[in-house]
């Protein structure tokens, strides 16, 4: 039944209207008295109505207190769209008048350019208002042809796909290294910034010049001692040598002269790491000694924390943090002044010898576990958190990060004795290199960052080209295919 007014006549329902004040001024018109060039007129039009012309690649920023109309999410206001199709069942006049009212209200509040409402569920993480309008569109969408996006167009816009880098599967050089020990806890190979390789063989240290292939015998410790670790200083020609008697010797390789001998450890010294003039040594006696070669004392501080032999030591690239790994399955991080570890990681289930700091991201540390663990784990020492873990399937003996690209190499023992090149952070395998018949216990990288050398108990050193050259370096490395062949290091 229709509603009746006071006179008793039927009253017809009318859609609600928005009552505007009769004195409200209308929008002022803009009149230009002077003739203008077409380019000037276009500029003026863009100023009056900036929505007419928008850059296809630049975002449009509005005032920081006034949200962008086209970028905001008006669906949260609950206003229905002005272009809804009529219901098939037919609604009464009240429903249609309500829809008309909502349509008028949308136009009055938000203008004609308001995006249509989309049916979305409310998300607390999304804001209603936006202060930036993204206008980036595919280039073909603004062409006059107006064709639809298809796979061929997308492929053409992306350009040619870069072929994956090929890593040679065979070593370009092999050196015989008699008496190279098959001992997981030792570190017997290191490559100097001056392109000289140091190798501990039995009770002797030999130097191999990668530029001339010349071999030099640096020292002989005698029948009562043996070499357990070698490590080059970051600058200069000094080489640190750890011995089975718990002593540490520093040699000047340019003159084949011993500079000094330092004591302090009771058992063999299997891990060494330089940080400028500070030299850290890790031993089977579970301790780490910090030595300053500028002072007469054998060591300046002693780091205690490991419950078994220390077999891995690496300073970060900024020389602010020292990472240590031990046969107690622990990975510790120390700072320059601490005598107790500032970070402790106990997730590995086997000895931690493999340690590498990323040269690309501050605080990113990689570590590898032994036979019972087989995992490479990544840590953020800035936030004290584990980032990821990957099971390699074999004992992890060494890790080294490329300084040229965001990739790293791992060497393995039981049971596959392989070398793997990884792409970080996806940890996809770029190459798996085989050739050693024993555990690949030793690893070093060339100063140009392109070549690695691996050593194993099969008494061979193998040289592999695994990393690309730096982008700024156009010339070939001094060590390369010109040294093909097999020779003896002593």
UniProtKB/TrEMBL annotation:
Q: Name one Pfam family in it.
A: WD40_CDC20-Fz
This protein's source sits in the domain of life called Eukaryota
Pathway info: Protein modification; protein ubiquitination
Q: Which organism is it from?
A: Trapa natans (Water chestnut)
The protein here is known as CDC20/Fizzy WD40 domain-containing protein
Which parts pass through the membrane? none
State the Gene Ontology terms under molecular function.
Answer: anaphase-promoting complex binding; ubiquitin ligase activator activity
User: In the UniProt record, does the keyword Cell division occur?
Assistant: yes
Q: Where are the WD repeats?
A: 220-261, 303-344, 433-466
